Amino acid sequence: MTPIHVLLSQPTETEPFDRHYRDVHIPMARKLPGLRSYTVTEAVSPVPREPYYRIAELCWDSMERPPRRLRLPEGRACADDTAN
To answer: Vertex 10, ends 9 and 12: CA angle to 5°?
Structure first.
């Protein structure tokens, strides 16, 4: 499987962020066509001085598919939701 990693910045308020991410964003992302797995972990920042909060790993069978799939309505909905 081929992963895409999403680095999530430290939110101002963690409780509302976690609730929205868990209850809205993850279920939305799980609808991405061809997605094989979706994992979220606490971040140990891979970049010095970058305060990442979580790292999401989305896996597909091959790297060819994710970029195209992210342009579909399901992918656009996830991108639009990132402001929340």
So the answer is: 125
The token duo for 60 is 């597909």
Region of residue 41 (phi > 0: left; psi between -120 and 50: alpha; otherwise: beta): beta
**pTM, full prediction:** 0.74
pLDDT tens digits, 32-58: 888 899 999 988 766 666 778 899 998
Structure tokens, 15: 């409780």
User: Which domains does the chain show, CATH number per domain?
Assistant: 2-81 (3.30.70.100)
The answer to whether 38 touches 30, Cβ cutoff 8 Å, is: yes
Task: Record the tokens describing residue 57, joined without a space.
Answer: 């790993």
Chain centroid to Cα 59, Å, comes to 11
